[in-house]
Amino acid sequence: MKTLNQPKKGDYSNFFSTYLNLVSGDQYEKIILDQIELLNDLFKSKGVEWSEKAYAEGKWTPKEVLGHMIDTERIMTFRALCFARGEKSALPGFDQDPYVLNARFSQVPIQNLLDDFKAQRMALLSMISILPEETLDFVGQASGNPITPRALLWIIPGHFKHHYQIFLDKY
Asked: Who contacts 160 (Cβ-Cβ below 8 Å, separation ≥6)?
């Protein structure tokens, strides 16, 4: 896989700094693959009951968080593809709460969600392998802000790290 350098300041809105500050280096593929194993190990070590209990009233269960992570990665991947292909139309934001509510992740076996997460990650790496390097810095508009495919792709492992730390700290 080609080296996927990190985005520069200005390639994304400040909102995404939270996620992008959590990842470093240029070993994107290794980070993506290592995170699959981290997630599998965590969920297997905790068991099914753990995956179905929120840490507080009104919070998502680990299964719902995992489903949210998958949905978010699909959206970021789609946005990256659109902008790398030269899409000029602005793409809308999304409200994560109705996505989680309507997905009914609590009804999905945890192994299906873990398999889906891995499949999404493998599709992500496959897509990146065929993107021309120069298209990673095209600028598109999502959620009312300019952003590059490179930034969107790096948000994915940062978003994972954000939620993984919450798993460790709160659940």
From this structure: 35, 39, 69
- Dist. CA 119–CA 125, nearest whole Å: 10
Domain count, the chain: 1
* Contacts for 8 with CB less than 8 Å, ≥ 6 apart: none
Which tens digits make up the pLDDT trace of 62-114? 999 999 999 999 999 999 999 999 999 999 999 999 999 999 999 999 999 99
The answer to whether residue 7 sits within a structural domain is no
Q: What is the pLDDT of residues 104-144, one digit of tens each?
A: 999 999 999 999 999 999 999 999 999 999 999 999 999 99
Q: What is the pTM of this model?
A: 0.96
Residue 163 lies in a domain: yes
Give domain status of residue 30, yes or no. yes
- Structural domain span for residue 149: 14-170
Give the whole-angstrom CA distance, residue 4 versus residue 84: 14
> Is 8 a member of any domain?
no
Could you give the C-alpha distances from 78 to 63, 67, 120, 162, in angstroms and in order?
23, 17, 11, 21
CATH of residue 141's domain is 1.20.120.450
Q: Cα-atom radius of gyration of the chain, to the nearest Å?
A: 16
